[in-house]
Amino acid sequence: MTAQPESNARDVKRFFRRSLWTVTGLALLAAVLAAVLGTGNDAGTILSIFSTRFLGIFIEAVPFLLLGTFVSGIIDSFLTPDDVARIIPRNPFLATLTGAFMGFAFPVCECGVVPVVRRLFNKGLPMWVGVTFLLAAPVMNPVVLVSTYVAFGFGPVLVGRFALTLLISVAVGLVFALGAKPQDVLRPRAALPVLGGAADTLPVAARKPFITGMRDALQHAGDEFFEMGRYLIIGSLLAAGMQTLVSQEVLLALGRGPVVSVIVMEALAFLLSVCSTVDAFLALAFVGTFTTGSIIAFLTFGPMVDIKSTLMFLGVFKRRTVLYLIVLPMLMALLAGVWLNLNVAF
Questions:
Q1: Which residue from 136, 180, 328, 331 has the least number of CB within 10 angstroms?
Q2: Range of 125's domain?
Q3: pLDDT for 15-53, tens place per residue?
């Protein structure tokens, strides 16, 4: 008798949550429009630029979010906690290293990796392995490998991008492995199944039959797409607003210094929010204007963290954790980029 009232309460809560995100998105859009209208430029031109950039970011990201949610649904239907326990080594370092290369099994960009990570947490993936996979997968996957090779060929940018991504993702994963607990890192919905990474304490779940599993996978993919899509929309609005308001000509004028160039390129990577599958071609336009170390930092930090992925992180991780996921890769990429500029002759 109590099931129906509880269901109604959940529906009401879901309605108000979605309404809140809608109002928030509209408020952000209104704030951006107010800012651009106050610049003295032609309002129609500014609005057109903003709309074009928003649609460009959103349309570029949506297919990869859809792919990520579909992979998430497949994981939910056909991957069991026992499978995760067999695949992931017990040694923390080897487990973290495995997480860095999981992108070759789940080739998703920064838009699709978040729902995949959350679903893997529900299957008992250790928290620190998920963090490593989250940071590494947008670069450490075959699609980005090919696109970077096509743009730059085999050379310092290709090698530097993948080596630095491996180093940063494993280092951050080990920091979380040694100094954090799942309940302190993850939101309750994601933290509960992880149980500190102890696979033997997870509930037994049988693999579903193919037809039933595919039907459930599509249902989960649809639910997850709309849930994570709100973060993508707000993140795309913010990124488009930043691109519209911040003069890229001013930033490009700062591109020659060994330190400043890295800071500027990391800021551009965060603000532009370009998908990792195509960002190598954008970075190619900066060759000759920016230092090689700054370009490598751009190609490393941007896929790990940008505006839209930061908003999506908030659906899985606690706010303090999201701050760490931004600051740690940013500082490590900054130090590596400056070191390359000062010590390596390209």
A1: 331
A2: 17-199+208-343
A3: 555 555 555 555 555 555 555 555 555 667 777 877 887
